[in-house]
Design brief:
The chain is mainly alpha-helical and 168 residues long. It has helices at residues 3-18, 62-81, 88-124, 139-167, and strands at 26-29, 35-39, 42-46. It is built from four helices and three strands.
Length: 168
């Protein structure tokens, strides 16, 4: 069984999502020269004009933070539990948990692309930019691919264990 490869994939997906705390999802530049960066924990602003206030509340990006932390924790749990899984029902539980993790990642990606990138630019009249420091928007996609590969490997292991049980 390739449990080590699957646990590495889930661990790497958690690490990749952990990088979201350091990389902005997108950046915005409005006509007044104010530079905004959207992180999963909020929006940072660098203003050239004095007296410019942030048009977003402090809890604006709280759903992104909660989703990201939940996905990271589930990925770490699945990664560490794969080695302890011996029985078929343990593999099945981890597979179900990995599918829930994949679904949460899809929700995170949809929330970022559908809601946050468009709703952040509307009040400040700026379009999102994905130049070098703002490549964080693509990290959940990389983590999703790793999770899908790990989940498919878990499914193959479950099928192998079931076929061996039939032979007994």
């Amino acid at each position: 069984m390739k449990q080590r490869a699957q646990s590495v994939l889930f661990f790497l997906s958690a690490v990749v999502l952990g990088l979201l705390f350091f990389m902005p999802l997108s950046s915005y530049l409005d006509e007044f020269g104010t530079y905004y960066k959207l992180f999963i924990y909020g929006i940072n602003m660098v203003s050239v004009a004095p007296g410019v206030e942030l048009p977003f509340s402090a809890i604006y990006a709280l759903p992104l933070l909660i989703l990201t932390v939940a996905i990271i924790l589930i990925s770490f749990y699945v990664s560490m539990s794969i080695f302890r899984a011996v029985k078929l029902n343990q593999f099945v539980k981890l597979f179900k948990l990995s599918r829930i993790n994949v679904a949460l990642t899809v929700v995170l990606i949809a929330t970022i692309f559908v809601y946050y990138l468009m709703k952040t630019g509307a009040p400040i009249a700026a379009a999102p930019s994905f130049r070098w420091p703002a490549w964080g928007v693509f990290l959940p996609l990389v983590a999703l691919v790793m999770m899908l590969l790990g989940s498919s490997g878990l499914k193959k292991d479950i099928d192998k264990v079931r076929s061996i049980n039939r032979l007994r």
